[in-house]
Design brief:
Elements: H1 2-9, H2 13-44, H3 50-78, H4 82-116, H5 130-152, H6 157-162, H7 164-174, H8 176-191, E1 199-202, E2 207-213, E3 217-221, E4 227-231, H9 232-236, E5 240-242, E6 251-259, H10 265-274, E7 289-295, E8 300-308, H11 314-331, H12 349-363, H13 367-399
Helix pairs in contact: 2-3, 3-4, 4-5
Length: 415
Amino acid sequence: MLLERLDSVTTDPRLQATIVLLASFVIAFLTEVLFRGVLLIFVQNTKTHLDDVIVANVRRPLFLSVLFLGASWAASLLEPRAWLVFVLNATLVSLSILLWTGALMRIASAVLQHVGGRSEATGVLQPRTLPLFNMLAKILLAGAAVYLIMLAWALDLTGWLASAGIVGIAVGFAAKDSLANLFAGIFIIADAPYKLGDVIMFEDGLRGRVTEIGLRATRILTNDDIEINIPNQLIGNSRVVNESAGPHEKERIRVPVSVAYGSDVDIVRQVLLECPRGQPRICEEPRPLVQFREFGASGLEFYLCVWIHQPQFKDEVIDGLNTRIYKAFTAANIEIPYTKHDIYLKDMPVVRAQLLAAEAPAAEAPSAHIAAPTAQTAASHAVTAQAVSAHVAHALAQSGPTLLTGPRRFTSGPG
């Protein structure tokens, strides 16, 4: 019918092709005006954002598809060679398929996010399973696009399907790492050891927040605002600590502290408990606690254990606690031990001769004068040990469960 109307207007093929091209431009322009002037304004007033995404993604492919259709029809009116018409039509169809495939991928992601992205979503579509379904939708749409493009170019699919097994084996050997990352990504999404927004830490100490779980790799954002891509295969074969998992997002951190031998354990405990008091990042419940862990090589080893609201505040809280602990120990005159080394110098004849010369007069003293001090010293040590034992027993009996007679508080100073 349209051809008959064109013939009634003119019989010149070039003029007919020009009319078809102009008509396609007019129709595409009217479509653009309809989308911009009516549909976009209408969907912006709705409550949901899904219709905005659909209209925005359909507008451009529809505009170009109308132009492609007009160009194909105009080319057929000029009656060029058959192969030229075939190549032009196949190219325009392939471009249209690619445009619509990209638009459908974005629309599918928006629909899945709208349906399963809510925190109260139940069933198969949930926030943790969204990447898996998004991945499957992209694979299906990409496969359909490849199939349609082959049909547009009139390729015989029988031979392709017959050789799919051989091609699959060759691709499997050539892209085994990519396939391993792909399947590892599917297993990660299915098992859900972590999800988007979780703070995870790897065996080598790398730590960050998950920003994307893709087909090949997982992206994490570190505290230095550096985004790192980690292949899914490496994640599947390593130990990953999810700091955001559990019944809540709170996390307990331990700050190791060492004090010198001879320090009052109860005073140290009270001073440490004063340090997290009033800090905004630290939870009031569960309460902070102090653990006496072990007798170390240079001092007594303690842990100050506190709970924080969110894992990303871990480094900030540890920095603040270390600062307050140091100031508190300084104010309370509690010594922080450090490692000491004794150095022995060997094979120094001059120094050895001087030491022997200095010890020679003491060696000439009579042995009778040495026996009496030795006996006196042994008796003194015995009396001292008994006195210390009696004093400790008396202190434990008087103080009960603690060695302090009353509560003592130590301020940690400003900061």
